[in-house]
Amino acid sequence: MPTQLLLTRFLNAHLAAPVTALLEAFHVHPKYPQAPITDAFAMELLVFAVLVAYFLLVRVTLSVEKPAAAQHLAEMTHEFVSEQGESVIGHGSERFVSYLTALLLFILLSNLLGLIPGLASPTANPVVPLGFALVTFLYYHYHGVRANGGAYIKQFLGPVWWLYPLLFPIEIISHFARVLSLTVRLYANMLAGDLVTLAFFSLVPVGIPLIFLGLHLGVAVVQAYVFFLLAAVYLSLAVAHDH
Amino acid sequence: MSINHPLAAYLTGDGVVMKKLQYLFMSLAAMLLATPAFAQSAGNYSPASQWVPLAAGLGMALAAGLCGLGQGKATASATEALARNPGARPGIFIFLILGLAFIESLALFTFVIIFLKVQA
How many CA atoms within 13 Å lie on the side-chain side of A225? Predict the structure, then answer.
């Protein structure tokens, strides 16, 4: 049995049997049949629950005359995302605000969870950022095809016809490299932040690690912003029209 | 070897050339002596694991140092641009963050490779 966080242990104690049965149905054999739910998955569920509760709270307390605190926060988030989207994507960015907001809030909350004792960052596990990157990859290609139709293929080709066979494979590889770089950037930043705090904790157990926790707080916020910004940039490149 | 030999000019010449040659021969000797040492250690235990900490440290140091250089250059240009034209703040900010993220990701790739290789 692996060492588990409190929440993971609770989930595994109650849901291990049905989850293992479900995974077996898809021919996936978990390493520990007694504990198929990993820490990262439990933390993701927690983030999901918190976000859904937050959005429900905002929706229920929505009011024009007396906006509550949650509504102010939601309006600030929406304003920030729309403003950034407008400046990066330009005209027609309203369509992407919902996806970008969800991405930003999910990653931000996932990154910040690692700072709370007893919880861990799900993004410090490479699988979770890979999921975000793959969803973003599919999303911007879908919108590229939607906005440009068959002409979307032109973005993968060069300016002149005899460059096509050279540039087409390069562009394909560079688009897959985006997935890799999005994944590795988020994962490595979160892992490195945790490791640095841990390393200094083993050297000086009092005081000094706090500095690195503070640094990690800044990195967590900036990395969520960077992931969101890159998703917006890729979207803007995909939906851009050639003139 | 006669005094008319071309090498004699170096061997009997003044300090600078002499010193350079001395360094060259010393490093050559060190390399030639070191080769059997590598071969010997291979017999006892795997030489790969012996050099892993050194390679990891050197690789990460190179990556971090050059990443710092690149990020410093980017930040310097951004602050200069901001001082010249404070009105352009939002645009500069986005490009600065994007540039820093891309530069930093190069160092992080090194970190991940080291992490994977040292674990294995």
Answer: 17
For chain B, give the longest Cα–Cα distance. 77
Please give the CATH superfamily to which domain B47-120 belongs: F1F0 ATP synthase subunit C (1.20.20.10)
- Summarised one tens digit per residue, pLDDT across range A26-66 is 888 777 777 788 888 889 999 999 999 999 999 998 888 88
pTM of this structure: 0.79
Q: Do A87 and B91 touch (CB under 8 A)?
A: yes
Task: Using an 8 Å CB-CB cutoff, list chain B residues near A192.
Answer: 108, 111
By the CB < 8 Å criterion, does A184 face chain B?
A: yes
Is A233 near chain B, with CB under 8 Å? yes
Interface of A with B in 110-169 (CB under 8 A): none
Tens of pLDDT, residues A154-192:
888 878 888 888 889 999 999 999 999 999 999 999 998
Helices B89-119 & A208-239, crossing angle to 10 degrees?
Answer: 110
